[in-house]
Write a structure and sequence with these properties.
alpha/beta, Rossmann fold, 2 domains, 7 helices, 12 strands, about 30% helix, elongated
């Protein structure tokens, strides 16, 4: 049986590692290729886009994929909708693995916004020194904010001709320790954190540090996700897959 995992997250890599342990199953993880040095999961790996829903359908048919698991980033909404449609078109089981959102707790000072552009629009009302953690492809909306300074944490540096705000670029990959996040916020005199609500543990420490230091958080809400079966942890995804594979074996 052949399982295609749409990956690019730590969760997807962990899932691929578990699936490779299932007898008579070949796992292929697809990475979009946006990160220069991605974490390569166990099993087979392909890198690059599919060219939309039609390209994904073609790949599923060519590779004789039996099961599709979408374990992409919670903000990669387009590929998630493409995956749902492609699975329906090909008549194969489909699962969306999406980690739980971070939830606001007492002590948090969150301002929730619909998108990155909205986050940039409200910053001049209160921010002076901003910790920006929205990814290298969404820096440009903040580039025209000239009366504030940005600490931009990225996995990879921006492209040479990218339009970015003034400040400092810090290239680093999580997980991040709470003590280190505290130090980072204090040393750079950060008064506002801008983050997508990605969920998970790898970068949650920045949210906790902001809470403990009384720093505002501008939180970008998640986009809509497709309908269909969803799980939020690796064990649940593996159990779902084992049930599906059992049904496929004995049809």
């Amino acid at each position: 049986m052949r399982v295609l995992i749409l990956g690019g997250t730590g969760d997807a890599s962990e899932l691929a590692s578990q699936v490779t342990k299932i007898p008579d199953v070949k796992v292929i993880t697809s990475l979009a290729g946006r990160t220069h040095n991605p974490l390569i999961p166990k099993g087979s790996v392909r890198i690059g886009g599919f060219g939309g829903e039609s390209g994904l359908v073609e790949y599923i048919k060519e590779q004789k994929i039996d099961v599709l698991i979408d374990a992409t980033h919670p903000f990669a909404s387009q590929i998630s909708f493409n995956a749902e449609s492609a699975a329906v078109s090909c008549g194969i089981p489909h699962l969306m693995f999406i980690r739980p959102e971070w939830e606001k707790v007492p002590g948090d000072e969150w301002i929730e916004v619909e998108n990155v552009e909205s986050a940039a629009a409200i910053l001049p009302n209160f921010a002076k020194r901003v910790f920006l953690t929205v990814g290298r492809q969404q820096l440009s909306p903040f580039a025209n904010l000239h009366n504030m300074w940005f600490l931009m944490r990225l996995i990879d540096p921006p492209e040479i001709n990218a339009v970015i705000p003034q400040g400092k670029i810090l290239c680093s990959r999580g997980p991040f320790a709470l003590e280190d996040e505290h130090r980072l916020l204090v040393e750079h005199r950060i008064d506002t954190l801008v983050s997508k609500n990605s969920g998970g543990d790898a970068t949650k420490s920045k949210i906790i540090a902001a809470r403990e230091l009384g720093i505002k958080v501008v939180m970008v809400k998640r986009p809509l996700t497709p309908q269909g079966e969803k799980v939020s942890d690796v064990d649940s995804a593996v159990r779902w897959l084992l049930r599906v594979l059992h049904n496929l074996y004995f049809v």
